[in-house]
Each structure stands twice: as C-alpha cells, then as structure tokens.
Specification:
- This protein is mostly beta strands.
- The chain contains two helices and 15 strands.
- A hairpin with a 6-residue loop joins strand 6 and strand 7.
- The longest helix has 20 residues.
- It is globular, with a radius of gyration of 18 Å.
C-alpha cells in the first residue's frame, strides 16, 4: 500500500497498481483489477522476471521493488506524493492526488514493459485516451487524467503500452495526475521534477515518522520501521 493521506493505492508483487480511488478513499476507483481483471490497472515491470523482493524505504510509505532478471537488475519506487516541502504533521495537507513511479537500472540491461489501462467507476467507464507531447491524456466524464512518460507510447484498445530498455545507470520516471474538469488542468512533469518530488515525499514521511518513533522499551526492535526494512518480499 502507498498513500498520500487522502487515498491509497494497492500494488501487487508484479508491480501492477490494481486498486486506486482518487482523490479520496471513498471516491470511485480508476484502477480496480482487485475486483475484476477488466477493471483497470497500471503495471511497470521487466518483460522477463527471475526474482522479486520489496520493502518500504526506511520510515516511509515509499515502496521499493527490486527485480532481478537474467540480464540485469532494476529497482522501482512507487509513491503518492505529499505537498511540496511538507513536514511532520503537515504531511498530506496539500497532496496533489498523483502517483509517481521511477525505475532505475542498477546492473546489466533490462527490457521493461508498461501497460496503463485506467477505467472509471469501478471499471464501468472507459476513458478516451490520446497521445500528447510528454505522455498521454485521458478524459472520463468530469475526470481528467494525465500520464507523464519519458518514452514513446502506443494507444490501442483504450490502453497505453510501451516497451523500453534500461542500461545500468539509466532511469525512467512516470507520473499520473488526477484533476476534476473544474480544477486547473495539470501539466506534464519532467524527469527531474518527478525525482525531486519522490525525494521530498521520502523526507516528509521520515519527518512524520520521527515524531512517532520515540518508544524506548524492551520491544523497541519490533517496531514497524524495523519490520518493514527487514521483511523483504513479505512486507505486503
């Protein structure tokens, strides 16, 4: 689970977001494959996977998944960003209702694939998707979705797909933003912006956690932060 304190997304071990309601927990879903295979998802993963492990970045809800393949290794970070420079109990007060995903190659060469197939109203409504400079835009009723991507995308059957290869030291970052048509339209986020927002949200969670990790008793080693960093693939 990742969250911005307004809503939450559920991410499978195959790095598919299979549940997300935005902008609130009680809003209709735009990803709902948890309920039905046809009810929408967003996956980013290697085309061939040998081993998967994942954890939360220490004292945060930033999810980090490592894929090891026969050709190399990539690490994917998933986060719902907080507002810019939020700290402590301000966490989430100005969250932009977005999902950020950044994949980095740490060894070898890894072929990746992305499939983004949003559906509104728990899978009942199919959006109109169009390619834009910098990604893809979608419209479903009063909902506007904007996907920022650093790669060329293909749209077919109301879904966005692409394959791309990352070599050691390279990274590709993606951002999904949600707006109502009554709000100002979002703009595409550039790669440095996405990386900065992930780092900023990581610090925001850690500043919030620091306010609540003061226990100094005999079970200090059994706290959530310790469990999540050591549990590897069994965290979620």
């Amino acid at each position: 689970m990742i969250s911005d304190c307004h809503s939450a997304a559920l991410v499978s071990r195959a790095e598919s977001i299979d549940w997300l309601c935005v902008p609130r927990f009680d809003s209709p879903s735009i990803f709902g494959r948890l309920l039905d295979e046809r009810a929408a998802h967003w996956s980013i993963r290697p085309t061939h996977i040998a081993d998967v492990s994942r954890r939360y970045v220490d004292r945060t809800l930033v999810l980090e998944t490592e894929f090891r393949t026969g050709a190399g290794t990539v690490v994917l970070q998933d986060v719902m960003p907080a507002g810019i420079s939020e700290h402590g109990h301000e966490l989430g007060s100005a969250a932009p209702h977005a999902v950020l995903r950044c994949v980095s190659c740490t060894a070898g060469d890894v072929e990746m694939e992305i499939e983004y197939a949003p559906r509104a109203e728990y899978g009942l409504v199919t959006p109109l998707l169009t390619r834009t400079e910098g990604g893809a835009a979608g419209r479903v009723g009063a909902t506007v979705l904007l996907l920022s991507a650093p790669i060329e995308l293909t749209i077919a059957d109301s879904a966005v797909r692409a394959r791309f290869t990352l070599r050691v030291g390279e990274a590709a970052c993606f951002a999904l933003q949600h707006r109502s048509i009554s709000e100002p339209a979002p703009r595409h986020l550039r790669q440095p912006e996405i990386r900065h927002r992930i780092a900023d949200t990581t610090m925001a969670w850690q500043s919030w956690s620091a306010l609540h990790q003061q226990y100094d008793g005999p079970m200090a080693g059994a706290g959530p932060a310790q469990r999540s960093s050591s549990a590897g693939p069994h965290v979620l």
